[in-house]
Amino acid sequence: MEPFKIHILGCGSALPTLRHNPSSQVVELRGKQFMIDCGEGTQTQMRRSRIGFNKIVAIFISHIHGDHCFGLIGMLSSFGLLGRTMPLAIYAPKEFKPVLDMLLSTFCTDFDYEIQFHAVDTTRQQVVYEDRSLTVESVPLKHRLPCCGFLFREKPTLPHIRRDMIDFYHIPTSQINNIKNGASWIDDEGREIPNSRLTMPAASPRSYAYLSDTCYLPDLAERVKGVTCVYHESTYCTADADRARMYFHSTAAQAAQVARDANAGQLLLGHYSSKYDGEQLLLKEAQEVFANSRLTNEGMTVDVK
Q1: What is the value of pTM for the model shown?
Q2: What is the DSSP letter of 201?
Q3: Both ends of the chain: CA-CA distance in Å?
């Protein structure tokens, strides 16, 4: 099975601390790497995590609060200094375009690579990126300004060939692709060998949902139903639920409710408020609702499986 990994580069909230950097992650799937959000310090965290700068195919920005995008212009500049020539796609709310244009015209005027900006409608769930391996959908969220999450879905793969059966029935290698695509085989005596005997089912497609800053949305679980792994902001504990409502954020228990109701495989907690000295209380509250909850931390790599 091809690697499907989440590299955590930053899991703090607006105010950087000595424990956490602002939001940023890299999703690695089938040889491609995608960045989600780019807070301050992301470049340093990439160095520490040994993630190659020029392997990033696209960057997805959930919204234009600084803790999710202040590191972007420095990142783009470094791409240029490192001699990048491959185009870079940026997916972000349309409101970010004039800001990005101003920053690029001020600081980045001699790139050898093209930046392709794609405006995301944060009010709709729709596919915003697609290639042969995966799709990425926007997921509408509710914050103090336009904001969305992103849902990465692996595309189904073809069944696995049973080499022993291929050899037993003396099937030529030229027929392998036909069999992978569902064909049966007629042997020398005219008997049909069903495809189910010649193949084994492929592994179920995996998925990852990144749910950025949002107040608790009861219908959010339905939008990511059955997701293999979900990251949901968990800025506050239940005792600070009033503050969460005021700033359109979620508590760890509310994040766990979304994961539970979505029948997710596991929940990753993040975007911790700087007011807490540690996150164990957030983890405890989440696990009381959804047992398979985990705290994220800078440098962590999560296998989606």
Answers
A1: 0.90
A2: P
A3: 10
